[in-house]
Amino acid sequence: MLSYRHAYHAGNHADVLKHLVLTRALLALQRKPAPFCYIDTHAGAGRYDLSSDMALKVGEFRQGIARILTRRDVPELIEPWLEAVRALNPDGGLRHYPGSPAIARHFLRPQDRMLLSEKHSTDHALLLRHFGKVSRCRVVQEDAWTVLKAQLPPPEKRGVVLIDPSYELKNDYRLTVEALQQAHQRWSGGIYLLWYPLLARLETERMLERIVSTGIPRILRITLCVRGAETGGLWGSGMLMINPPWQLDTEMQAVLPWLAEALEVPGTIRGSGVDWLVPELSRQ
């Protein structure tokens, strides 16, 4: 059984990037009245208590969401995500942090649907407690790649899939590429969000190369670095977005410099940016 528990890292700089991108994708889907589906392959516990021993052991949220909430110059594009965070903290503090399922629930409309999958038994139990009775939400304890095979394409024909492995095993990098390629073959029109770590290892670079070699078009890359690579550890993270909604690249180009400045460790080299890993198809 894998040991990764996201509660140790909830609200860190990686969550900030991941959940901001997710929020912008969900808001883009809201522009049309037709229902859409949200699929979360590695849903975790769904929401997190930042006063818990697990969260406080490392305290990564202090260099993540806590920094953002104290700023008075937050860009307008970031505010909707912060509204989802504040919704779990009605007293105005920072006791709870919404995982991706809670972020999605905040933005889903009555006609929309979500499927949450978490294989870890403890986190699945927590996920079921938090979301098991939510309308139009299904919680399953299945392997992430099995879920993608079984659930795509969704009946709604519109939606977003968040793939957020722990990368605890080196094999995760290969499996992620295979699953993403197969998922795109089943549902080429879906929006796919893939989070990946920036670490002092070659697996991430090779994974990105393999994704390019699949031939999947329209892949946007969003990178947030908070430290220099020479510092080691998780010095940043990235989001790949297949079929990004219109103008999402422009939105992230507008807010990423502010985000990097707010979260970076002073004296380190920035490497944040937005670019097309695979160029956008020309519009006819």
Can you describe what's shown?
Helices cover 38% and strands 18% of the residues. With 284 residues, the protein is α/β, with parallel strands linked by helices. It has one domain: Rossmann fold, CATH 3.40.50.150. β6 (159-163), α8 (171-186) and β7 (191-198) form a beta-alpha-beta unit. α1 runs antiparallel to α10 (248-263). The mean pLDDT is 91.
Features:
alpha/beta, 284 residues, 10 helices, single chain, eight-stranded mixed sheet, two-stranded antiparallel sheet, 10 strands, Rossmann fold
Amount of helix: 25-40%
Total strands: 10
DSSP helix count?
10
Content of β-strand: 15-25%
Proper CATH architecture: 3-Layer(aba) Sandwich
Global outline: globular
Write the layout of secondary structure elements.
Elements: H1 13-29, E1 37-40, E2 47-49, H2 53-58, H3 65-69, H4 79-87, E3 96-98, H5 100-107, E4 113-117, H6 121-131, E5 137-140, H7 144-151, E6 159-163, H8 171-186, E7 191-198, H9 203-213, E8 219-225, E9 236-242, H10 248-263, E10 273-278
Parallel strand pairs: 1-4, 1-6, 4-5, 6-7
Antiparallel strand pairs: 2-3, 7-9, 8-9, 8-10
Helix pairs in contact: 1-5, 1-10, 4-5, 8-9
